[in-house]
Write a structure and sequence with these properties.
It contains six helices and five strands, in the order βααβααβαββα. By secondary structure, it is an alpha/beta fold. The longest helix has 14 residues.
């Protein structure tokens, strides 16, 4: 299965690991093909530098060890105007998931809760683990 994870998931996994998160990362990196988008990586860098500057090296090491395929985020909105997300900053992540044609987008962002698409399926970590593992 092809999976993309959102920025907030990367931050949680790298900077706040726990048994649940470690298991999740093990499952997605060991049993599935993981995708990250260029927008998420740029957003990640901004957030880490602003909120967790002392943990920048830890984040870099986490990303070096994480097996993933990079998807370049489109520079313009390619989404159908019927797709509405409350926070417009989330459009690039969703567009990247659609371009990559991933099966599942995993996010903890409540702004994705009301987005209804056939593909990708949008799930939280808990919903993904319950459904697929």
């Amino acid at each position: 299965m092809e999976i993309m994870i959102d920025t907030n998931i990367i931050i949680s996994a790298a900077l706040f690991p726990n048994e649940r998160m470690n298991r999740f990362i093990g499952v997605i990196s060991g049993e599935h093909q993981l995708f990250l988008c260029s927008y998420s990586l740029k957003e990640l860098e901004r957030v880490i530098k602003r909120k967790f500057a002392s943990r920048l090296k830890k984040m870099e090491l986490f990303l070096q060890k994480l097996p993933y395929t990079l998807i370049h985020t489109p520079s313009v909105n390619i989404l159908n105007s019927e797709i509405v997300i409350r926070d417009t900053k989330d459009y690039p992540i969703l567009a990247s998931a659609i371009i990559a044609d991933v099966d599942v987008l995993i996010t903890g962002d409540a702004d994705f809760d009301k987005v209804e698409l056939e593909r990708p399926e949008i799930l939280t970590i808990s919903a993904f683990m319950k459904r697929y593992h």
